[in-house]
Amino acid sequence: MAEPRRRRSVSAAFLLELLTGQQAELDPAGGALQVVDLGGGTGGVATALAGQGHRVTVIDPSPDALASLERRTAEAGLEGRIVARQGDAADLLDVVGERSTDVVVCHRVLEVVESPAEALAAMAAVLRPAGALSLLASQRKAAVLGHALAGHVALARRAWADRSRFDHDQLVDLVRAAGFTVQASHGIGAISDHVPESVVDGEPGAYAELTALEAETSQDPAFRALAPLVHVFARVGLLTPAAVD
Known about the structure:
It is a single chain. The protein is of the alpha/beta class and about 240 residues long. It has a single domain, classed as Rossmann fold, CATH 3.40.50.150. About 45% of the residues lie in helices and about 20% in strands. The protein contains 11 helices and 7 strands. The protein has a 7-stranded mixed beta sheet, with helices on both faces. Strand 4, helix 5 and strand 5 form a beta-alpha-beta unit. Helix 1 packs across helix 10 and helix 6 runs antiparallel to helix 7. About 40% of the residues are buried.
């Protein structure tokens, strides 16, 4: 018998679980945090975090996305916990204010900004001391491999030459250069994104097993390097970095 259909893919669920656990490190008592979701769009992450009791400001350049976010917020009964603001990374300091928030969520945005270094510096500036950055970015090697295996060799070559896509070490170096202390990095989707939904839905227990495997392999350097996405969790104002391979 197939398991009930899930609202989130394995990789999306793992990412949210990862983010939830990392944010708990900021306040072990489970208090509400001030979160800025840069490029948060229609609020997939924001509504999940607001549902956990946090207060989230979503900054996005698209009026249509923000309108969808407001409808989604109302449907979820999260009015008062999510605020929508139009803007982008260049507007971050003006919209949020210096040293005003506990967490910045920046998922799949750094690849499209004009200056990743300046964007990261702005994120560091709006965070309170010991505040946290949740950074998610696509990886170049995974894009190259995916295009090549699909038979799109020309696209694979273009992806290899595309420096707007990051590799793990490059991303970690950028984050550190902006004044952050990197606490952990994980590959997202290295295995689960290659498993057909029909397999996950049709085999009892497959979702739980795949979720566990995704977590177990996410910090292995080889799997992490080939993951479609890499997640970096970092803090400002800390003196002792965690070990990151």
